[in-house]
Amino acid sequence: MTVAGLAVCVAGAVLGAVLCALYAPAYVRTVRLPVSPILAIGVNLLLIRFTHRVTRSRRLALLPGLAWMGLMILAAGRTSEGDLLLASNNWVGLATIAAGVLTYTIAAFRLSGLGAPRPHGGLANPPPER
Known about the structure:
Layout: H1 2-23, E1 27-28, E2 31-32, H2 35-55, H3 63-75, H4 91-112
Antiparallel strand pairs: 1-2
């Protein structure tokens, strides 16, 4: 079950990265639509939660992020024909990469337990009990 769930999550990350890359150059008349960064945040948050729930592992919950980022790096490079999905002059494409990476960075911090609140109001040495 864990392996199948992880495979579904990685496939979801691949699909999410492809959709983010394809929606990055979206226009309405002359205005770029920031659909892709919003999609990146939403898809990545759902993938993190679903992967963590299916695998019950903090480390494996971040694996779809590696697949997502790998595909976004490939989308930012030129093909042999010269095609480019995420151009450097497209602020939506750059915002998509930043939003996706930031989403996984925050998730890694929260899943690591470092961001968990401390007992006793955050005091390192709690006062003695009376």
